Amino acid sequence: MATLQDPLELSAPATSRGTLAHMRATLRRNWLHVLLLPLLALWASPLVWIVVTSLKTRVEVFDPNAGFLPAIAQWSNYPAAMAVAPFGTYLVNSVLVTGGILICELVTITLAAYAFARLSFPGKNILFTLFLLQIMFPIYATFLTNFVTVRELGILNSLPALIVPFVASGYGTFMLRQAFRQVPTELADAARLDGCGHLGILWHVYLPLVKPTLVAFSIIAVVTHWNDYMWPLLVTNSESVRTLPIGLGLLAKSDSGADWTRLMAATVVVVSPLLLFFVIFQRRFVDSFMHAGLK
Amino acid sequence: MSVNSTFSHISRRGVLVGGAAAAVAGLSGGRAFASDKVKLQFMYPVGVSGDINRLVTAMISQFNAAHEKIEVEAIYAGSYDNTEQKVITALGVGDPPATWLPINSALQTFLGLDALADITAKAKADDIYQDFLPGFLETCISDGKLYGLPFQPSTPVLYLNKDALKAAGITKAPVTWTELLDVAKALTIRENGELKRWGLTIGGGWHDWIFECYCRQNALVPWTKDKVLFDKPEAVDALEFWVKMVQAGVMPPASTWEGSANDFMAGRTAMLYHSTGSLTNLRKSSPFEVDVAFMPKNKTFGACQGGGPIMIARKQTDAQIEASWTFARWMTSTQVQSQWSRDTGYLAVRKSAWETPEMKAYLEKVPQARVALEQAAYAGAFLQVPGYHKVREYLKSALDRTLAGSVKPDVALKEAADNSNREIQRLLRRRS
Q1: B:7-66 residues touching chain A, CB 8 A cutoff
Q2: Within a 10 A sphere around the Cβ of B374, how many other Cβ atoms?
């Protein structure tokens, strides 16, 4: 930090030494901010652009002579974007589908990971390899078989069709199995002596200790499935069971260039729930990653 | 996998309403046939702007209100590619939708899947062959048989920034390739060697479509039903002209479809090859006056069509095919087409639609819309070969690499033609 402070020091008149010293102290305490503020600006710039563009007129978006901010905020872009599709229904569906997938996944990966980490049974290694293989298949490769399965279950064009193919996760199982293996067996043995069964051990010993991993996996799962586009498009037909990305697609996927102002207005609507969710639980997320890092 | 569903049906509507298909699908028959209405599905893409969804939905409710015995369900299916995937997936499990709207290039793909109902006889008994613009109808014909009704055709046109032309003292749009190059030179602005405005941009991503137009302007249709002819001298000559424009510094060697439209609106390119489907968007979003012109000619004027027809599934009962026909016929009727064309910028497919009073008033107000119609007289179908997705990628890669200067035009096109023909042969062998 010396290079940053020296010029200040040299150019300062003697009388303001006190304030300078104060500034120096502040800088020393908060030097990380100097580094992080530009990064913050970089990270936030697309979001700012989205919001600003959502309030412009169509001409303003590309007119180099127009300023960065809209001359008059066009709030009407929002109702105009919302009128393209029933976004309210889409929002509810997105929440139900993403939430449903997350809950199912957490249950299945916890149980599977426990089995792979702590039980021994015949074929365990082969089975685990198969789980890992599942991670390697791109999702598109399994679309047709999944489609056939969903159709035979008779749930095409319904919300369960959007959830069922994703109730298990090879990736999550792998992630959680690694975390479980970090937990000392002595803790589990102690719990067993106290009379806990498998589920009891899982609930009282393992899960509290791997919370950071669970949170990390949840974030990944939510973001992935919140943004799913192709699968919902494939298995749903009615607007009553479709999700937000399909609504966005209506504005973005066009021959004629995207309809930027309305697309950005709709984007604001689509990303705000996730953003809000993250802001509210920010401390918890960050904490859990810190813990995960320490391990 | 004969598991009975234990999941409650959340959707109120049943899916896959095709008659024979419904039995296979294991839907409770009573629900699908509760009324004596014929139920049809119509899968459509959104190609132009967000409002298409609402327009189509409104058209469908109008149709349903007017037809007691038929109920059509409109299903938005993403882009053209997404729609094709969705339909092919449904075909794969034997439950195709009754009707759908693919891009016209997909004709051979669907014929290869034996998916299309032959509607030649129905069309001949009707006024289809008389009233439809022949260039549009041709996009649905293979071996003399008709497999769909054109619904939303488009062609590339040349968009001009009228203010920029005026500032450069140019009074009329370029008519020949030579003029195009001259005008592009005059419109390109460089300050101290730094580029401020391109003279011309060819919308990337679909530049293979525009390239076919250039081939047709050289009097070459660069494909037949079972092979491509990219290596013909006419095609090489067209690409050499593109290279010349890039080397003259008036045209960027690469662009994207949406990016090029954005560049035009922002004044970073003075002329632009883009779809007629973009007319409304470009007109409404540009801070200057937009003019539209024919794509300049070389040996002749030439264009080829994007956009799509309504196709009807073969694998359904006669009653359903009849109902599908009624629907396709209604969607392409004079009044509906006139309205649709004015709302979207797509070209109306019927001669009579262009003669309606509403259309005449519209052309009075937006004379640019007429250009595309007149150019359509020179337009044919676009790359109707099996496996056109892959063929397009081969061609686009050849164009990109040539414009980037890494390979000579004739070598690149020869390679693209060889790769494409090998792929087409592979598909044809698998089919027979």
Answers
A1: 7-16, 25-27, 41, 45-54
A2: 10
CB A235 within 8 A of CB A162: yes
Q: Give residue A257's pLDDT band: very low, low, confident or very high (50, 70, 90).
A: low
Q: Give the model confidence (pLDDT) of B16-62 as tens digits.
A: 333 333 333 333 333 444 457 899 999 998 765 547 778 888 999 99
Please tell me which of the candidates B12, B13, B86 has its beta carbon nearest to residue A233. Answer: B86
Q: Sort B292 into a burial class: Cβ within 10 Å, 0-12 / 13-18 / 19+.
A: buried
Is residue B223 within 8 Å of B294, Cβ to Cβ?
Answer: no
Complex ipTM tops 0.90: no
- pLDDT tens, position by position, B143-175: 999 999 999 998 999 999 999 999 999 999 999
Mutation pick from B5, B54, B55, B76 vs chain A, by most beta carbons of A within 10 Å, is B76
Q: pLDDT at residue A7 above 50? A: no
Q: Which residue, among B89, B41, B19, B25, has the nearest Cα to A155 in the 3D structure?
A: B25
Cα dihedral sign, A279-A281-A285-A288? positive
Amino acid sitting at position B335: Q
A156 touching B (Cβ < 8 Å): yes
Phi first, then psi, for residue A206 (nearest 5°) are: -75, -50
* Residue of B4, B7, B99, B305 best to disrupt the A interface, most CBs of A under 10 A: B7
- pLDDT given at position B31: 42
Q: How far is CA B266 from CA A50, A210, B160, B197, in A?
A: 18, 52, 13, 10
Distance CA B257, CA B271 (A): 14
* Alpha-carbon gap, residue B228 to A162, rounded angstroms: 41
For B93, nearest residue in chain A (alpha carbons): A148
- Specify the pLDDT at position B8: 41
| Residue A256: predicted pLDDT | 55
Tell me B97's DSSP state: -
pLDDT for position A10: 44
8 Å CB contact of B11 and A238: yes
Contact of A151 with B24, CB cutoff 8 Å: no
Question: A248 and chain B: CB distance < 8 Å anywhere?
Answer: no
For residue A272, the tally of other CB atoms under 10 A from its CB is: 11
Beta carbons of B41 and A164 less than 8 Å apart: no
- Cβ contacts of B74 on chain A, cutoff 8 Å: none
Q: Does B261 touch chain A (CB under 8 A)?
A: yes
pTM for the model: 0.79
pLDDT of residue A29: 81
CA distances from B242 to A101, B94, B276 (A): 51, 45, 21
